[in-house]
Amino acid sequence: MNRCGVFDSGIGGLSVASELLKSKLFDEIIYFGDTARVPYGNKNESTIIRYSLEALEFLKNFDIDFLVVACNSASSVAIDELRREAGFPVVGVIEAGVKALDAAKTSNILLTGTKRTIQSNKYQNMLLDLGYQNIISVATPLFVPLVEEGITEGKIVDEVFELYFGDIDKSSIDYVILGCTHYPFLAKSFKKHFPNAKLIHSGQAIVELLKNEYGLKEKSDTSIKLFASDNPEELRSKAKEWLNL
């Protein structure tokens, strides 16, 4: 059986799990959300690495063949350590997201993410190496608790968007990189505020990377098992709502 472990700091990685389920590249997906310690984006580097390695050890119990790090904060600081310890391919959302950006080098790109992801400069450095110059980076940590609370549209969300992006000419943005796996659940709000922009979605980017670089083919069906370090009932409830389980 071909199994993929998916790890995130909370429930946001369900946006990646959803795309993996639809792609049918694996027989089974094992999802672990570290909900007891969400969010990772405001924690220091050594703590995120420790939490990530603990998640890897948990997922190894299921004989997984791939690990998808569906957490941008973990992908920004822990990916090398995870690859050294795994013994199987480890794919992070940052690398996948940058590779999914097929745009003119003069495009105006808005990068959003947690404080840790933005401060790591991993996205920015990879984009600059590819020749992109017009990059605006904004840390948007309040989006994570909003999604965790199921608040993805409406007055409160609009006010937070204005708080973070009020000084930006929204009509000039060509691409928005959703640099946190929670953010695709805010897609309608992003499209409302950035009507001319194409959204770069981590889950879709991961699927394309797995197909293109690992040659994975569609299976007949994919099942999923869900685990959380705290309140697993909430994770299963959100999965039922968001993944149509």
TrEMBL record:
Catalysed reaction, written as an equation: L-glutamate = D-glutamate
Pfam families (UniProt xref): Asp_Glu_race
Gene Ontology molecular functions: glutamate racemase activity
SUPFAM superfamilies linked to this entry: Aspartate/glutamate racemase (SSF53681)
UniProt EC number: 5.1.1.3
Entry keyword Isomerase: yes
Catalytic residues as annotated in Swiss-Prot or TrEMBL: 71, 180
Signal peptide segment: none
Binding, substrate: 8-9, 40-41, 72-73, 181-182
Annotated metabolic or biological route of this protein: Cell wall biogenesis; peptidoglycan biosynthesis
Keywords: Cell shape, Cell wall biogenesis/degradation, Isomerase, Peptidoglycan synthesis
Domain of life, per lineage: Bacteria
GO biological process: cell wall organization; peptidoglycan biosynthetic process; regulation of cell shape
Enzyme class: isomerase
Family indicated by similarity: Belongs to the aspartate/glutamate racemases family.
HAMAP family: Glu_racemase (MF_00258)
Function text: Provides the (R)-glutamate required for cell wall biosynthesis.
Protein name, UniProt field: Glutamate racemase
